[in-house]
Amino acid sequence: MIKEKNIKEKNTETSGSISHAYLGNNVVRGIPSSGGMAFGKALVLHREDVVIPTDRINPADIPKEFKRFESAIKTLINEFNDLLERVKNESANVGAILETNILVLSDPILLDSIKTMIEDGLSAENSIINEFAKQTSFLKKSKDTILRERAVELDQIKERLLGIMRNQVTDYSLGKHAVVVAHVLTPTDLVKFKKVGVLAIVAEIGGITSHCSILARSFELPAVIGVHNICDLVKTGDSLIVDGYNGEVVIAPDKSDIEQYHLLREREYDHKKELGEIVKLPSVTLDGKHVKLSANVDFPKDVETAIINGAEAIGLVRSEHLVISKQFFPSEDLQAEWYNQIAQRAYPRTVTIRAFDVGSDKFSEGLPYHEDNPALGLRGIRFLLKRKDIFNTQIRAILRASANKNIKFMIPMVSRVCEMQNSLKMIEKCKRDLEKSDILFDKNLPVGMMVETPASAILAHSFTDDVDFFSIGTNDLTQYVLAADRSNELVTSVYDSFHPAIMHLIKMTVEAAKKKDIPVSVCGEIAGHAAAAGLLVGLGVDELSVSASILPELKMRVRESTYSDAVKIADNLIQCQSCEEVKQALSIT
Ligand code: PEP
Ligand code: MG
Predict the structure, then answer these.
(1) Highest-confidence segment of 276-285, 356-365, 370-379
(2) Counting atoms of ligand 1 from 1, which one is nearest the CA of 475?
(3) How confident is the model at residue 373 (pLDDT cuts 50, 70, 90)?
(4) How far does CA 358 lie from the centroid of its chain?
(5) Distance CA 474, CA 465 (A)
(6) CA of 558 to the centre of ligand 2 (A)
(7) Which of 9, 131, 427, 557 has its CA 20 to 30 A from that of 24?
(8) Measured in Å, how far apart are the chain's first and last C-alpha atoms?
């Protein structure tokens, strides 16, 4: 438990043992839990290990123990209610977390069980410890990351209760303009440190799904968690640079580290100013229709830009960029690490990873064939089902990175139902294999498909039993519908995604999807055309996934429009005979 007197100077000598996360002379690495950068002096919070006597209490003291326990519960509920009152207008996330904590403390089963132990002669402290141990033992053994993190949160509630019983007081004012470094932080700590103006958070434990991380993101506080041994590596007063984007902490930075930090901060500041307030506002039309706006990313580092620009999710990860950058098909471990980085940086947003869409048009290195017509050749799922070894490795890596349940998997270039069904069979087989090896993954990993061939759009209704979502790839759909190579400049005037035929196929896909309640996104370039947003939304598309830099403008369009007008626009424009007519109506030159 944190206490003013525990915020003490500590020797930085670390008995020679340097954390495995230690990268260089002065940089330690953890999980990037909340984006942003900070530079300031450390405030190291050390936990006090209190030994609680296990002797049974005198029967005459039982009523007194009851009172102590009940008063501690009441104090903590009041503390949470008080925080709830202070933050309720700031963040729904924070409110929900505090409400969950109040529910835990009001749980009659938990309260009765503790009271029974006190009646049996245990001290209030020991009864609390025993009961919480009982409640968390099952969670701690769970293979589910999120459940294990719930156990950490229950432990935090327990620690706070015990702290109240021991009259421990934390002087949060010491966090002003400091980087708080701790073993673990509770929601109360976060809320109170935020109020006094803490600069950043670094913690030894906690995962990206922990309340600590969620709160840090809600408060826009840079945070790095899971930094092994940081409380031993740093002493109060040390200078630290916290890079919440990359999960790095620079201890005692030198002149060039500080210069680099200021440079990055300036860039971040300018960028945020440019985007203004729009990134924080919801993507809702004037008549209340939510249009999900997501980002397409190619590499883990792109996630940061996507979040700064207000992406609600990562709607498309073109995983083949990993292959192209390496010039070979990476191992399962390397892939799992790459997917995991993207998923962690984006959490709690979802990330839709598309299976390698390689073919000789995108990647010829190492592919033992030459195709005269690669766009119509062995690409996407066709290639993957021919090279099941490569597909299998990718599926396993994606499953391994999915334990936090924010990954979706998408199959590219589908034109036949059997391709989707064979992919699903392979995914199921990989799940069984991972289960046998006790490897964690999301058992309900959503699997969807790109709609980018005319066949898949026309037969969308035939796929709805097998998929969890559709994402329309208008880049390829346009080239296949109009028989115009997307990379041949001689036919750029023919290759036009505003062709009414494309509108009809989008409409068909949406209609099939709606019958089965399946969400539809558009992730091709047309989605990034601000003027087309109304048309796509009017056609019934739920989500637009675009380059991050386009998101603010797109959101502005959504917020200035009405859904009812969008439907009318779509109804009108689908009657058009040519791209020119459509574009003229949308004022696109
Ligand atoms: C598309 O075809 O629209 C798409 C998003 O995929 P890619 O551009 O990678 O082929
Ligand atoms: Mg495509």
Answers:
(1) 276-285
(2) 3
(3) confident
(4) 26
(5) 23
(6) 25
(7) 9
(8) 64
